[in-house]
Amino acid sequence: MAPRPSITGFDPRRFAAASANGTKGDPWARYEHWRYTGPFTRFNRFKGAFPGLGIATVAFAGYLVAEQLLFKDEGGHHDELT
């Protein structure tokens, strides 16, 4: 006689296989894995560390270019004394 299927769909053999630790090293590695995947990857953690740095860098570079092209040096007290 074949075993009756579970009403809830719970299979204890599949549960035991899923809960077995496949690695022989760190027993907590499976539990710590979520910290380094998905939204918690290294890139995603540091992506928002400096929120305005990109805009500020472009604005400052634009200011330096405009200063060199548009604002001429009028001279002043830095002229040579001859």
From TrEMBL:
Keywords carried by this UniProt record: Electron transport, Membrane, Mitochondrion, Mitochondrion inner membrane, Respiratory chain, Transmembrane, Transmembrane helix, Transport
Membrane topology reported for the UniProt record: Single-pass membrane protein
Segments passing through the bilayer: 48-66
Record GO cellular component, one term: mitochondrial inner membrane
Single Gene Ontology BP annotation: mitochondrial respiratory chain complex I assembly
Subcellular location: Mitochondrion inner membrane
One Pfam family per UniProt: NDUF_B12
Function: Accessory subunit of the mitochondrial membrane respiratory chain NADH dehydrogenase (Complex I), that is believed not to be involved in catalysis. Complex I functions in the transfer of electrons from NADH to the respiratory chain. The immediate electron acceptor for the enzyme is believed to be ubiquinone.
Protein family membership: Belongs to the complex I NDUFB3 subunit family.
Official protein name in the record: Uncharacterized protein
Origin species: Decorospora gaudefroyi
